Amino acid sequence: MVIRPIEHGIFAGVGGAVPTAGFVAGGGSPGQSVVDKFAFSDDSRTTLGTGLTTGNSQFAGMANSAVAGYFAGGEDASAGSRTTRVDKFAFADDSRTTLGTGLSVTTYNQAAAANSGVAGYSAGGNAYPGGDVTTIDKFAFSDDSRTTLGTGLSASTPYLAGAANSGTAAYYGGGFVGGWGGTKVTTVDKFAFPGDGRSTLGTGLSVGRYALGGMANSGTAAYFGGGDTGSLVDTVDKFAFSDDSRTTLGTGLSAARRYLAGMANSGTAGYYGGGYTTTGVATVDKFAFPGDGRTTLGTGLSTARFAPAAMANSGVL
């Protein structure tokens, strides 16, 4: 994939281009409505004047890069229950609307990924009422209409993470099966674009874990970081898109944590924000592509919190 300068914000703000940025939303117990925005040009943080429709946590983010980002499902703090709601933030002005059609199932602890320019996918999670699901809802970016894939995840899985090689495939990794306290899995399911056919990678995560975070350097690799194996881990597994082979980064997160959120400025760097150690944290770790060196931002989230969701505008992918 050819990376054009605009995709890295090099010409951000010139000729009407929208500056690239990452967004970390919600999180906490009860969930917050706050949406923090990190400008990729200098990693500075602002907080949007208009946040989520209501406080939310344990939900998922995905983006039609250069156009809009979406936050789907989760635990709605105002209602004291779960929601099918999907909030949409237009990158041109960060304004929020709410889709007329939300998720097909009231779901939390799911994961999301996107084929930028085409569609976003919300996968798995806990249905309420009910149980864990294999369901994958697909939202067409042309009109935000929703369909549900005929083939879902290979197992009913909550607390998983998602990442995508835009134009090629989406990946969903980790989580657990068999209900709360069930088996923590290494499984990574791959959905090929545009047909959405599912395969399962022969090599999964380096260790089974749940409540991890996913992000991707589109065209190059997916990253699954942190989570809980029974103990919190700082592990970051990297899957090369060329052959789906897995390596594990020599430098992991700055601290072992679960319930974190991932986002990426594709071609430049990936970020993991928030999470839980012995309490919620404001930490944002940055992994520079392609060498994967880690730094920690001097300015983290506006409030310490766990189980947020994240998505990013990386420019045209």
Which key features would you list for this structure?
317 residues; mainly beta; 4-stranded antiparallel β-sheet
Distance between the termini: 9 Å
Write down how many β-strands occur, each being a DSSP E stretch of 2 or more residues.
Answer: 31
Structural class: mainly beta
> What is Rg?
17 Å
- Chain-averaged pLDDT: 93
Main β-sheet: number of strands, strand sense, barrel status?
4 strands, antiparallel
Strand content: 35-45%
Q: How many DSSP H or I helices?
A: 0
Instruction: For the largest sheet, list the strands in their spatial order.
Output: 3-2-1-31
Residue share in helix = under 10%
Briefly, what is this?
The protein is mainly beta.
What does this structure look like?
With 317 residues, the chain is mainly beta. Helix content is 0%, strand content 39%. The protein has strands spanning 21-25, 35-39, 45-47, 56-57, 60-64, 68-72, 75-76, 81-82, 86-90, 96-98, 107-108, 111-115, 119-123, 126-127, 136-140, 146-148, 161-165, 169-173, 176-177, 183-184, 188-192, 197-200, 213-217, 221-225, 236-240, 246-248, 261-265, 269-273, 284-288, 293-296, 309-313. It has a four-stranded antiparallel sheet, with no helix packed on it. The protein has a four-stranded antiparallel sheet with strand order 5-6-9-10, with no helix packed on it. The chain starts with 20 loop residues before the first strand and ends with a strand. Mean pLDDT is 93; it is low at 1-15.
